[in-house]
Amino acid sequence: MSASMITNNANDPSLNEIGHYVVTSHPPGSVLSAVRCSFFGDGSVDVAIAKSNRLEIRQYRPSSGDDSSSDPTLPLVLTLPIHGRITSLFSIRFPALSRDCLFFTTERGEYALISYDDHVTNSNTEMDGSDVVGRHYPVKTHVTGSFTNYAVSIFSGGSQSECGPLVALDERKRCIALHMYDGWVTILPIHSGYDGTMSKRAGPFGDVFHARIEEKTVLSMDFLQTNKSSSGKGKFYIPQLTLLHQDVRGFQHVITHGVDLSKKCLVLHSSPENAPSSAEGKPSATTMPPPLERLKKTRIDGGSAAILSVPASRTSPLGGVLILGQRQITYHHTGEGITRTLPVGGDFLLYSYCIVNEPAGDENEDERQWQAAQLKYLLGDEMGRIHVLTLLRNVASDGKGDGCVTTLLMETLGTASSSSALVYLGHGCVFVGSQFGDSQLLKILDAPVPLSAGMESGGEKNPLEETTYLSVLEEYTNLGPIVDFDLRPCGDDPVSGGGRTDATINRRMRNNQHHQSVLVTCSGVGKDGSVRLVRNGVGMREYAEVEMPGIKGMWSLRRKFSDDDDMFLVQSFVRETRILGVQSSGSGDEMEDGEGGGAALAEVTIPGFDSSKSTLFAGNMMVGRFDLMLQVVHDGIRVVDSKSLELISEWSPFSVSDDNSDADEPLGLITVASANESGQIVVALHGGILIYFLVEGGGSSPTICKVKRTTLDREISCIDLNPFEAIKYDNDMDLDEGRVVRRSELVAVGLWDDFSVRLLCLCDNAETASSRNQRYPILDQVLHINLGVGSAVSGEKSAIHEVDTDAENGDSSQHMMARSLCLVSLHSHSTNNNSLITNKGVSPPMANKADILLIGIGDGKLISFAVAQTGLSRNWSVHSRKEVSLGTHGILLMRLRNGAHLNPEVNSTCVLATGDRPTVVYLTGGNGGCSTNPKLCYSTISLTVEDDEVEDGQASHRSITVNAASSFRSSQLFSSANTNSGSNYSLCVSDENTLRMGVIDDVQKLHVSSYRLGMTPRRIAYHEAGRVYCVGCIDGDAAGGSGNQIGAEINMGNCVRFFDDSSFEEINRIDLEPFETILSLVSVSLCATSQRTPQRQDDSSDYKPYILIGTAYAYPDEDEPTQGRVLVVECNSGHAQLKSEDDGRDENTRHVRHITQMPTRGGVYSICRFYNGTVLITVNSKTHLCQLSIDNDQNGELKFVGAGHHGHMLSLFVSSLAHSGDIVSSGSGRQAKQLAIVGDLMRSISLVEYMPKHNVIEELARDYNANFCTAIEMLTSVIFLGSEGFNNLFILRHNVNASSEEARVRLDTVGEYHLGEMPNKFMGGSLIMPNQQGYSLGDSSGSFIKEDVNSSPVKVSYDQQRKVEVRVGSQTLFATVDGTIGSILGLNGPTFALLATLQRAMNSVVKSVGGLSHDEYRAFRAERQIRPSRGFIDGDMIETFLDLNRPTMEKVVKFMNDDGRWRIRDNGLGLNGQNYHEQALMDARLDDDAPSSPYSSSLTVEMVLSAVEEISMMH
């Protein structure tokens, strides 16, 4: 293919849809299963939690005995990705092992046994390179296998168990039972002598065998427990498997079968009694209990859902079972002839249960448990209530008695989240895992306490009325199930400047994919229903603000150096300095705390400071025994005593008596200054003069001593001399309070008109041993870093060369120089999304820290380097260059440190970059001593204020530009609303007019805000014109009158609620009619004119925003709804002037007004925007075009246009590329096609076109595969995305240029992928701010800290470093029932080829958790169809490359180079076309085969890292 052909199609958006990148932005939160274990070692109390395809390990940390005020915690320690959806999970302890193993199964019938491997955690120090390669996760896989048997599936007719895979573990660890197919049970024998190795050629498990059972519908199963007594006969009995099943008439029964492991068969309940096998008459190991002792119970409570075994009594060899029913709880023991029942109040289902027992402290703990006088179980029901069930046993106070169960008692403790898993941790703490709400860590109290707050609106009534025994210690976010979501745009329209006119809203809707958005979800079920706001970046909670224009700089000061809180805020203005101080609230001009913290900021004075001049730097110092403050102004340096606040020493550039050598040279004003806490000061004067000072405190008072002066070849623009924390020198000072005062060995200097940064030495040879082999005089250049792409890094003076920035950058050269510098040691932040191991207390303390040089550029770019000393000579060098664009304004850098600086476990530092997009720069990864690499991350701070200066009078939001900022910690100002302020970042920021004080959220990638509804949300839409969230809900507490009930069917009332987008205050509510349910909800702009001409390009002022609600009447006697309606609602923002009909006066009110409604002959399943101010709706199997018309009386009417499309079974979805206000005009040229796709219940996706000339909708093409659609989206006019009921994704392509009509009417499947979760919606958009240079990500020139900790960084000449361009196309968000939020990015051919090769390499090199196959997991699976995945890239696996150790990275890249298929340059016909060969694409000689092209050479680790990190920043 020629280059001209590619050039002609360069603007085709489908060229960026050759492949698709699927990646998780927010992990699943829905808890499927949880188990208590000792995963990390003997004595450790851990909780293993299964969440979809992830396995989380949390470690229980009880409150310390020394600190009774501290609550127990359950921090996340380890997150493991699993190649499969986890269906069951439990722990197994082998006698020869010192920790528990975890056994889990997947939905494909695979199983694995894993355990923690601390050798991998310490691989950097304890293993050589060969042992590290491929070992990334700190787990050991003992065995991997499969339960599936093709013959069994055939014999059972392929019908899987209705209740899903059921798994049970024998209490004596003899076998595992699995029920996957109706009529069959699979048994996995356990070898109890397994020692963790294969030395005896015997693994942990024996051979799997399958056994036939007569019971078809099995609801639950468990193994009976045996008598722990050494004289009991229970240990001689074969495992007894108890089944809860249901017959064809709906009756439920309990029956027990034996499992004969020696004969590999199942001994049915009706089998005859075994004879003794020895002369002594003792039973053999394959003995069944006597027939009269075999457990069986018929006709139990019809609502029973689970059984659990109960420990045996002293007189019985086997225990009984508890049957958890909907109306009663039953204990039954056939051998003892005991049946005890306990009626339960109400009619509810029990979802979860666990036994209450303390973690085993010694060998006899289990024996004491089954001999106890009472047994306690925790039960969780569907309403979220937690009950404690007590089984009283016949055991006297002296320990005598037979131990039989005598009584059942149940007490309700309180209400929590609806639980799917309960785990008792000990000391009264319980982990509640939920599928429908947030998981929780609860504390069971000894006595009831009043509820802390009233009942939620619409919430379920608490059975304790006003008291509870439960206290919530921690909550863990779960977004699932996400039924629907919408996007709320962030920031301002670049044209309108923030106004909310209709034209502005239309423009935003048309360009929704090019704006950062907040994702708003419908989450939860019932009382756990909520609206969640998910945003990228860091939010700031504003506490106070004051109008204060003209601030040029700010610094915080502590009254004493050892104080935790800041006392003064120094503000620099033009020709003056002002100081605010923390004082008790009182009269005066104060900046009061908005939360009522009892303190305020008031203007104060520091006598030693010069308030008549601008301040260049201010800070605290500790020099010897002197506690000092420092102020640098243009004409001097001032040192102030912290106690008296009086001036004790100063230096002025105009006083040259102490500098005889320069007495004849007049010095100019100070232009730039920097200092640190140890007393080091560096100032720059006019003429490029740089002077280094030390504040010395050896005498009776501190003095300012000049150490060295030098002159650089240009004016100095910025300075920083913050010390790194990695190296401690002899002159560093340790204070009694734990704070370390360090001296800096380097000063970073930036110059005007020079795109470079210099690192100068501040230590002589006597100060540090690091310079013994390399002599650098003070202020001599150590390193010269040219920031241009065409320059190199050098440490030799001869290599320093000037870059002609004027010639290279033209008029913009003044913006391309360093404006701010920051030398900082960043600490890795613990994040659940990106870190492999987090918060692990046994991790090496220095494994999560790196020394960084950050450079803020005048045009909004931020450049970073890793700084290190390498080799025996300890020379300074930089590596891992990284460049990102943070806006268009100049950047100033400021270090942020949380208030917990005295606690090393939570000590954390990050950097704030100011500008029009203020951003927090932080480090993540590299935690827990694992091989995870630290990497830089960027989170934008959301600073939004109300804008009351909009011309049309409507309210708006506008983002503010931060000109100056400073950290400011004060427990008095922030204590009331932030009890955990010690671990947060509090700061002050200012724009051109206002000073604001607040606290920023935890530094992480995504933040979630929750707003409780107390009912189940179904649909949501954000209406920007009215600034409201419209939420369609199912109100389970709706009053049921005579009209709300037909026969035994009671209506669940549906309603639409309107919430303010800022305060989330409910504005209005629309209750629907009885049996009317909400199916669709959308905010659109309709052309609401009386005379509408679609052929003419109307002005956007003809469009008005409305809310459309589609409903159906779901009567219980109808299989398919025959009635429905579309409601048209208008909502204003509350600031528009409205006319009162009564007196004609203008009113300023906020209202929701019903405009019109249109009845339909069926349910309105979907509504989407269409062209020319119209909408498409699907009504049962039909697709219609609708428009809004306005008569002369301004009454609206929504009506069908022309004939709809008929040809589907049930049209659930409709989607188009149109946005509100999009206009298709015929003009003189060819009219653009008005296309849409329709998703059917069974007939996949169809492409339809509206013909305006004939007013008809015609089908152009369809997918002839039988896909049960769950969500659809149009990516381009010819590329379509869909998901189907078996949790698969597929991509369809319309071949419009095919020669045959048969090919043109068929949608070709070009991509298939198993997601593993069910998406409920796709929507074009992004959670991040788009790149300033479009969607091409080839501009970033490096990655961050990817060298091994024991290797030397390599100096890189950036002109020789080739980069692989990463280019993406469409960006689509999706949400699943498990709470996952993900992104699907379109890829062009070269990018897809590179990432596909990387995926194959990682799949081959990196060992997966449990040894499960990635290819099998991602294969397209539907019913009995299994096809390999194609056209998709697993982004979660790709981004794991960033965390691999260096030897594994090198092996992966070597695999890619040997593979060679990353060189493929596909033009849209190669990888997904059947007539184009890969080798032909590889051999094509195009312009990018030049010597400078990356395709002309082999890949390097740095090139792959750069590409992966670039695409990881796109979601």
Report on the structure:
The protein is globular, with a radius of gyration of 35 Å. Strands 34, 55, 56, 57, 58, 59, 60, 61, 62, 65, 66 and 67 form a twelve-stranded mixed beta sheet that branches. It has a five-stranded mixed beta sheet with strand order 93-94-95-1-98. The protein is 7% helix and 42% strand. A hairpin with a 3-residue loop joins strand 90 and strand 91 (1288-1294). The protein has 1515 residues and is mainly beta. The protein is built from 16 helices and 98 strands.
Distance between the termini: 34 Å
Rough outline: globular
Instruction: Supply the number of helical segments.
Output: 16
Strand content: 35-45%
Q: Report the C-alpha radius of gyration, rounded.
A: 35 Å
- The chain-level structural class is mainly beta
- Seen as an oligomer or otherwise, the chain set is single chain
- DSSP E strands, number: 98
How can the largest sheet be summarized?
12 strands, mixed
Unreliable stretches: 1-8, 123-129, 453-464, 492-505, 507-514, 659-664, 765-774, 796-815, 830-847, 899-906, 927-931, 946-957, ...
Helix share of residues?
under 10%
Query: What's the rounded overall pLDDT mean?
Result: 79
